[in-house]
Amino acid sequence: MKLLTISFALCLSFSICNVKSAKILGVFPMPSHSHYTLGITLMKELVSRGHEVTFISAFQQKNPIKNLREVSLKKAIPDNSDFKKALFDLHEASFWEHNNFVMELGIEHTKTILNLEKVKNLLKENENFDLVIIENFVNDAFLGFGYHFNAPNILLAPGPMTYLSNYFVGNPSPSSYIPNIGSRFGSNMNFIERIKNLYYDTLGELLLNFKFIPGQNKILQSTFPGAPDIRQLIHNVSLILTTSHSSIHSPAPLLPSVKEIGGYHISKPKDLPKDLQGYLDDAKEGVVVFSMGSNLNGSMLPNHLKQSILRTFGKLQQKVLWKLETDLPGKPKNVRIVNWLPQNDVLAHPNVKLFISHGGLLSVIEAVYHGVPILGIPVFWDQEQNIKNAVHNGFALNLPLRELNENTLFSSVNQILYNPEFEKNVKSRQVILLDQPMTPMETAIYWIEHVIKYKGAEHLKSPALSLMWYERDMLDVYFYILLFFVGLCLVVKRCFRYLCGKLKKNVVKVKKN
Ligand SMILES: *[C@@H]1O[C@H](CO)[C@@H](O)[C@H](O)[C@H]1NC(C)=O
Ligand SMILES: *[C@@H]1O[C@H](CO)[C@@H](O)[C@H](O)[C@H]1NC(C)=O
């Protein structure tokens, strides 16, 4: 009781209980709608809680929001359609090609953004910030914002923790049961897969340390003169917010400086446009929703594949709502093509029975949130792993792009539509996702304010950060123990020989006598 009174008094006098109004810089310049959604949703919430936000983004709100200043790079970011085309080819790339591509892309993108006039102007302004929140997406040189404004950096990882985010806070990721993001393995790996996984983890570390981080350091040094080596800034990150959750991902080790906020971007479903609402309401047999997300432009699918997909859909009893950038001639009556989909609001409709998806993390979370089973057509990065986890949890089937044809699609769709297990399993995951002590958004805000309040939250930093990689993995100790035993063996062997020799001599002596 006394303690309560004291802390209450402290609250009043120093207002340490909550952070009143902080100045926050958000850095989310990925030119992709899903990434923008992650950023703007969080920024709006921060503003609604009294903070003042400056937001570097790749798009722009239609109507300005009070206390939210958007530094929109919409017109300045170069066209990325070539890159989008390349994404479809990634489903056949090797681990090396895939990861090398992502890192080169990251270096290119980071350089481009930091060289834009609007960003340079912001750095020249006499601004002060209490905190910087960066979307962590192969862009480490952005940590320079925190350095420049002398403010703590928080990272928001648009996915589960991977070897591209663990190193900031020293989060452990054992190769034995945490599949590498580029491995395409699910979480129950057999012996051979574990060997391969160790290989991927090692290769990833090498790429990271010898290619990616030096590349980012170069950008950091040229944009923020006087900055320390990037590794110092990397190990000074205060917190990582990760958009995973154990209802969707396999449980993984997470340090106290890593918080799971998967699903925070989902808000209450909004009203649908009238015609879409009518279309879904009238679908007595149910609706199949098909979308490859916002980065994969479905118009780039080969024509014969699109025709196969249309023929398959034509055979279904259900209606099909397909998000595709261009309309297709000769589509069957039950198929409707839209070039934009309010996905979260549509998935919330009770008539939606199946979601055919590329398996992007946000899509998987939204599907679980609304209890809709998934047919995954993964293409790149974390997608295959997201889907494999979903398959493992019993609410999805995996149909990689390379195996997609009329037969496989038809049989997979029907399996999910007519086997109630899929729906049952996704509903049980939905309950787990929704049953949390604080909503994912409340968790995000709580920890963001925690970092502001404790000026970088030094107390959350892991001692792992001060160790070399071989010390962290105990390799030096194992090596020492190995040496010790080898030495011991040698000594024992020597003694044994000596004793044997003595014994022989004695035996000979005895015989002689
Ligand atoms: C690390 O972060 C703290 C607080 O956020 C800051 O005071 C300190 O200067 C930073 N150190 C470096 C090397 O950037
Ligand atoms: C998708 O690609 C088509 C043609 O290849 C193009 O016209 C369209 O603008 C692209 N859409 C998006 C959203 O990238």
From TrEMBL:
Main location: membrane
SUPFAM superfamilies noted in UniProt: UDP-Glycosyltransferase/glycogen phosphorylase (SSF53756)
CDD domains referenced in this protein's UniProt entry, alphabetically: GT1_Gtf-like
EC number: 2.4.1.17
Keywords: Glycosyltransferase, Membrane, Signal, Transferase, Transmembrane, Transmembrane helix
Subcellular location: Membrane
Catalytic activity: glucuronate acceptor + UDP-alpha-D-glucuronate = acceptor beta-D-glucuronoside + UDP + H(+)
Signal sequence annotation: 1-21
Class in the EC hierarchy, top level: transferase
Gene Ontology molecular functions: glucuronosyltransferase activity
Database matches in Gene3D superfamilies: Glycogen Phosphorylase B (3.40.50.2000)
PROSITE patterns, per the entry: UDPGT
Parts of the chain that traverse the membrane: 477-496
Cellular component terms per the entry's GO annotation: membrane
Membrane topology: Single-pass membrane protein
Similarity section: Belongs to the UDP-glycosyltransferase family.
Protein's name in the database: UDP-glucuronosyltransferase
Lineage, opening ranks: Eukaryota, Metazoa, Ecdysozoa, Arthropoda, Hexapoda
